Amino acid sequence: MDWYEVISENFMVAGGRALEVLAAVRDRHPLVLHGVSLSIGTTDPLNRKYLADLRTLARRCEPAWISDHLCWTGVGGRNLHDLLPLPYTAEVVRHVSQRIRKVQDFLERPILLENVSSYLTFPDSTLSEWEFLRAVTEEADCGILLDINNVFVNAFNHRFSAEEYLDAIPVERVVQFHLAGHSDHGTHLLDTHDHPVREEVWALYQRAVRRFGAISTLIEWDDNIPEFGVLAETAERARRICEATVGAGMTGDDLSAQRLAESAVSAHHRP
Amino acid sequence: MIFQLKDLQNLLYRLITAPSGVAEGLAAEHALPEGGLGTLVDGDERLSAEARLDVYADMYFYRLLEVLKEDYPATSAVLGEANFHNLITAYLIDYRPCEPSVQGAGKFLPDFLRLHPCQELPFCADLATLERAIAEVFCARDASLLEASEMNTLQPKLWGGVEMRRIPASAVLRAQWRTAEVLRAVEEKRDWKPPRRERNWILVWRRNSRVSYREIGSSEAAALAMLARTTEFAKVCEVLAKGLPPDQAPQAIRDTFARWLAEGLITRAAGGKRNHSAPDREPCRG
After folding, report:
1. ipTM greater than 0.90, yes or no?
2. How buried is residue A219: exposed, middle or buried, by Cβ count under 10 Å (0-12/13-18/19+)?
């Protein structure tokens, strides 16, 4: 394994084994923090305690980057512990991008936001999902963690073209990929992270690598976790696709780091 | 629009967390615009707007149920699947998750069980309290330990003035039922027996990432409770000696203190008399 991604909230604790393990991993490998409760799209005020804890964790483990999701996770001080979609409108773009800028200022570094899987959309939306993602990240000047499985899931659930989605995302903003499996419920696909990556998602990944380059890729597998060999082979397959698609040259992690450091993502938050 | 977004998010929150499901939540909802849910959420021939919200409602409940099962394995095992499911359904109405980490979702389950005791299994509140303490101690702040060698460098006459306290990764619980036996049985995959109703104290602490627990007597419990704050060793000795014949007290105190040091329970007070910060116990009531 080249590097690790950890769920930020699992390590925002005072002490004990979690932090010991994190330190041991960090001693040997680069890691990135991936949060699930920033709730960048909520109408609640930004949670300063949460941000302070995240900043403390970042100072402790010096991640290559910090990411979370383009969504809301709760309102009125309550948490749904889920990643809910937003209406795709110009006003919501402004609302979210202002909050992202505040978060980046507080953390003193750019962040990445991930496109989420969703099971509903809003008639009020005036933008497509990819137009919304592009507008938010450009107005906020942040990076994108592009989840290829989520693009596929949403393309099925909301009947759009996954290829059109990828083609509309600005190359210079995409710093990391996620790949994962999902479950098919007939009427909809559910992003469960408990299956192997589907062949259609691999094909979409290949297209993404061709467009965005061989950037850092993480396989998410949270349930029904297979033997390590299966995970390693899945990661190896992603590596082979990168090599076959873009050839030898700058490795994925280097390209991701370069893209993050370049002014295209954030001139004033250069790490 | 932001005001509208706030209204939309509040409405979706209410529907997703409606105890009896989205349909009943919708029936009770007064803030729906004319035209109903379909004016706010898209639906199609595959899934209606309501069915799409149901996807989120199911994920909300079952995700939390799984987390709470993992946090309270013994309470869950003792109650059985159906009872635990019903317990969590009721709990989430009164105590909505409000922390960024899902690990905080079950923080108030012991309180809830005290307010709503299970008639057939009245010891469950004590059992859940013990399981919660174990979870909190697991990730509590680290501290440098007071070692026996450090005490041995001091002249015995100076021991009484040494200020010390209990490590943050520890808790002293008072229980009405002997629930440590039940937890031990569940952990060891043995059949558990209903515990005796008998007042007792349980010490929970962490050393080298491992959380342990043991029943303790009343004087040890009183002394360890006192050590939640920075305390002089002489005062701890007074508490430990209470009720003991004068000729037995010194040895008993030596044995107890040696055990505490060996178990890694004591930290030297450093930098003044700062006490453990009180944990955040403000619930999000439903």
Report:
1. yes
2. buried
